[in-house]
Amino acid sequence: MSTARALRPAARILLVDPAGRALLFRFVPQDRPPFWCTPGGAVDPGESYEAAAVRELREETGLVLECGEQVAQRHAEFVTIEGVPVSADERYFLVRTEDTHIATGGHTALEQAVMREWRWFDAADLTALDEPFFPEDLPEMLIELSVW
């Protein structure tokens, strides 16, 4: 039996509001406990990480913003919501926004089914969260980037 994982390049956004809070979406899949995650997703074939970051930000939040250069890279192995085991090459982009209104009209049918809510988190909120969040080192990333 093969244990090979699909390679999944992904662009993830560290979206930060004027108060220094980071946006996370709560996923409620049918096959596992709920978890929180930064906006972002898979890079489409032929698309750059930078272009994927802009597209994912627009689709998931309704915000049309420049995402700049990547600020971090992580490798993660997980099973996608669709049930596909992947080895993800995740590139992170720090994006600051004045607009805290999130529009989810660009979500796919799958995202509408599993992305049940969103919330802005400061350091204390994230520390007090009793559900998993990803990336797991998000607080350290935000401290290193001088957000917190």
Q: What can you tell me about this protein's structure?
A:
With 148 residues, this protein is an alpha/beta fold. The chain has one domain: Nucleoside Triphosphate Pyrophosphohydrolase, CATH 3.90.79. Helices cover 22% and strands 36% of the residues. It has a 4-stranded mixed sheet. The longest helix is centred in the middle third of the chain and has 13 residues, at 49-61. The protein is globular. The chain starts with 5 loop residues before the first strand and ends with a helix. The mean pLDDT is 94.
SSE order and pairing:
Elements: E1 6-16, E2 22-27, E3 35-37, E4 40-42, H1 49-61, E5 70-79, E6 85-96, H2 109-114, E7 115-121, H3 123-128, E8 133-134, H4 138-144
Cofactor: Mg(2+)
Protein name: NUDIX domain-containing protein
Keywords: Hydrolase, Magnesium
**Share of β-strand residues:** 35-45%
Strand ordering within the main sheet: 4-1-6-5
Number of helices: 4
Helix and strand sequence: EEEEHEEHEHEH
Largest sheet composition = 4 strands, mixed
Mean pLDDT: 94
| Low-pLDDT segments | none
- Approximate helicity band: 10-25%
Describe the global form.
globular
Structural class: alpha/beta
- Rounded to the nearest angstrom, the radius of gyration is 15 Å
State the CATH superfamily name. Nucleoside Triphosphate Pyrophosphohydrolase
Kindly provide the name of the CATH class.
Alpha Beta
